[in-house]
Amino acid sequence: MRTPRGRSWPSGGRLAGLGALGLTAALAATLVALPPGDDGGGTGADRGGDTVPVAAPARAEADNCNDQSLPPSDEDGPTIEEIKNRKVKKLVVGVDQNSFRWGYRDPNKKGGQLEGFDIDLARKIAEEIFDDRDAVVFRAIPTNERIPAIKDGRVDMVVRTMTVNCERLKDVDFSSGYFKTGQQVLAPRKSDITGYNGSLKGKKVCSAAGSIAEDELKKQSYGADISTTVPNQLDCLVRLQLGEVDAVVTDSALAAGQAAQDPAVELKGEKPFTTEYYGVAMKKGADDLVRRVNKVLADYRADKDGWKKSYDEWLRGPIGENASPPKADYRD
């Protein structure tokens, strides 16, 4: 099979296995507590093969609050002391287990351990706090439970392709941005949908509840039926594969991974129609933890074996860009 851009897709069981992952894992329970130390292990997914280009975002969000995080610091404070002094000496991190190359379980690997770009970052933060990259408990959190899980103390932080914006900053605090992305349309490659425009009129469009995509569709639907919302973003891909919806609106970085999983779909439109930044979300007022995470990110961006190495391992394949980490902006 060939992609719409004329590239050959790899043959064999890898994409088929990942397609099955999309159809099954996305229908799993909405909150799964993983055993202490459950981790990505291994060396990562195969990096070779074909790519799904993601163009640079077209415009900035009107409420971009990526510059509202605290400056970095390596000093402990009350939040970090509480984490260090509890009985189980591990950082509890909310993650995804269904997003290809971000936080997922490769069915072709023995053990099915979590791995991906976000998992690497979570491990780096645990290493900074406990001097042990394995001192982490991963909890699978659906899209619509990310903020509640932080507020009610189920997790210390969420590292789960979560966009920083002003509305969310009312409920949680964020690190500086660690990845730049934007919203884009995902649809069958044979569809007459051409992007986030009038071609959506009369089409059924899926988004995740509590996502930026849902917010954007409420602002401008272009006449689409936007009544289909799901707890987990990957559930939209399942509905698209089953023919229950005509398109999905989601982050371009996630959509690129989904298009890599299923060559029957593709990104529509030349580029994303928003500019967004993923950040690590933490409890409101946990200033010492926010500063420590920002120190980790500052070092991670600068280290050739940090952000760039993780990007090359997990994201260069599906995204197809020689990307670099976004510049950190802090509030005064």
Automatic annotation (TrEMBL):
The keyword Amino-acid biosynthesis does not apply. Keywords: Signal, Transport. PROSITE patterns: SBP_BACTERIAL_3 (PS01039). It holds the Pfam family SBP_bac_3. One of its GO terms (biological process) is amino acid transport. InterPro entries: Bact_solute-bind_prot3 (IPR051455), SBP_3_CS (IPR018313), Solute-binding_3/MltF_N (IPR001638). Belongs to the bacterial solute-binding protein 3 family. This is Glutamate ABC transporter substrate-binding protein. It comes from Streptomyces alfalfae.
